[in-house]
Write a structure and sequence with these properties.
This protein is 28% helix and 27% strand. The chain has 9 helices and 16 strands. α4 (96-99) links the parallel β6 (84-88) and β7 (106-110). α1 (12-23) runs parallel beside α6 (164-187). It is elongated, with a radius of gyration of 22 Å.
Length: 311
């Protein structure tokens, strides 16, 4: 026995779950994804989302409405006569008519241990806050923001130097398996739902441009968490006066280091940098328009060294 599913998602993170549900034998009635977006240097080419492309590879019909608030879109959704909707990083708010437009409701795969980190950027926020653990949760959606009752949970440890990109990939695979297990229990009538506690709720707001520039006056632990929490995208950055000319450099990987000095001071020839308290060792950086490189290679060509400052 399989379920008739409407899948709703957009990025590669979501595509893994779509593929897993199809492989598990579920009948994917349709896929909803964000409309193709302008891409390329001139923004003239329209690029389909990773979920859109995955659905086409699987031979599944794709719908890309800009809104689900209209009566026509809601009726078209109900007409699919699906058992359940599965939502993973779709990017549109679902009105009540959509949440109730299938026989069993809508289930969301969310990348945090709810109620911690409800909202748009749970992976980055967990690392930036220094959390040692996060996870994937399958929850039945209601009209609130990630407030519905939880069905299943898979926990994932966050290593001390783990980046957002690495955590993203771990959670992507974990979430795909979790949703397969959720639908298996749902179709057997064995899925228990647990209301979320309000105690401990936090909001994972979108990353702002202002947050991406490193403030070296912060403690080393906060600088390190900012660097890895924003890697590889959008990327933390600072300015380095390489060869006497200031240039913007993206900081992709770091670790905590011994030593100290004035905030932003380079402490050695391996790119250890003093913070407000302690120091971080920069491991991987990227010049604008260039490729990512290790710090040692960067220093050889940047004419920077011990005693210079980053800003």
């Amino acid at each position: 026995m399989t379920l008739r599913v409407v899948f709703m998602g957009t990025p590669e993170f979501s595509a893994a779950t779509l593929r897993a549900l199809a492989e598990a034998g579920h009948d994917i009635a349709a896929v909803y994804s964000q409309p193709p977006r302008p891409a390329g240097r001139r923004g003239l080419e329209l690029t389909k989302s990773p979920v859109h492309l995955a659905a086409e590879e699987l031979g599944i019909a794709v719908r890309t409405p800009r809104s689900l608030k209209g009566a026509d879109e809601q009726e078209a959704f109900r007409a699919l006569q699906a058992d359940v909707a599965v939502v993973v990083a779709y990017g549109l708010l679902l009105p009540k008519a959509i949440l109730e437009g299938t026989r069993l409701g809508a289930y969301n795969g969310h990348a945090s241990l709810l109620p911690r980190w409800r909202g748009a950027a749970p992976i980055q926020r967990a690392i930036m806050a220094g959390d040692a653990e996060t996870g994937m949760m399958a929850m039945k959606m209601d009209e609130g923001l990630d407030t519905g009752p939880v069905a299943l949970t898979s926990r994932v440890s966050i290593g001390p130097d783990m980046t957002a990109g690495e955590l993203h990939d771990a959670l992507m695979e974990t979430g795909a398996g979790l949703m397969v297990r959720t639908l298996a229990a749902l179709e057997k009538g064995e899925l228990a739902l647990t209301p979320q506690p309000e105690d401990g709720a936090t909001y994972a707001k979108k990353i702002s441009k202002e947050e991406t520039r490193i403030d070296w006056s912060l403690p080393a632990s906060e600088v390190h968490n900012r660097i890895r929490g924003l890697s590889p995208f959008p990327g933390a950055w600072c300015e380095m006066a390489a060869g006497g000319k200031a240039e913007r450099v993206k900081l992709l990987r770091s670790t905590l280091a011994a030593g100290g000095g004035r905030a932003g001071e380079i402490l050695d020839d391996a790119l250890a940098v003093a913070c407000g308290e302690g120091a971080v060792q920069l491991i991987e950086v990227q010049r604008a328009g260039g490729k990512a490189m290790n710090a040692t290679d960067f220093l050889r060509g940047a004419k920077l060294g011990k005693g210079d400052f980053l800003s």
